[in-house]
Amino acid sequence: MLFAVMFNQHLHAADVNKPSPSQASSSESSEKDTDDTRDRKEQSAIVAGFLLLLLVIVSVSAVALLAIWGRRTRRLARQPLPKTSELDPMWYLRKPNRSSAESEDSTPQE
């Protein structure tokens, strides 16, 4: 109800300030068009600014992530390898163990 009263007052105020159709000129309609165009350009500029800001934030985040990842990779690459047991360089000349040879022979074959 309150909305209807406020809306009616707004309409009456608009009717008082609104010129009759015979008084409307092409310059007033062009002013309205330029105001609409200006508003659209302003909104477009704001959206473009936010998109540019988003692009900058994502780019900086990607570069920071790459730097962190590279530092970690370099640190891992510089670490020495774990110690391994010394293998006999002539391992292929050794005779096989008796226990492994016997276990291979003792398996039943069908």
Q: How far is the first residue's CA from the last residue's CA?
A: 98 Å
Count of helices?
3
The share of residues in extended strands comes to under 5%
Give average pLDDT, whole number.
77
Spans of at least 5 consecutive residues whose pLDDT stays below 50 are: none
Rg from alpha-carbon coordinates: 42 Å
Number of strands: 0
| Shape summary | rod-shaped
* Largest sheet data: none
Briefly note the structural class of the backbone.
mainly alpha
Helical amount among residues, as a percent range? over 70%
The run of helices and strands is HHH
Structural summary, described in words:
This protein has helices spanning 2-17, 26-78, 98-106. The mean pLDDT is 77. The N and C termini lie far apart (98 Å). It is 71% helix and 0% strand. It has a domain at 41-75. It is rod-shaped, with a radius of gyration of 42 Å. The protein contains 3 helices and no strands. The protein has 110 residues and is an all-alpha fold.
Summarize the structure.
By secondary structure, the chain is an all-alpha fold. It is built from 3 helices and no strands. The longest helix has 53 residues, at 26-78.
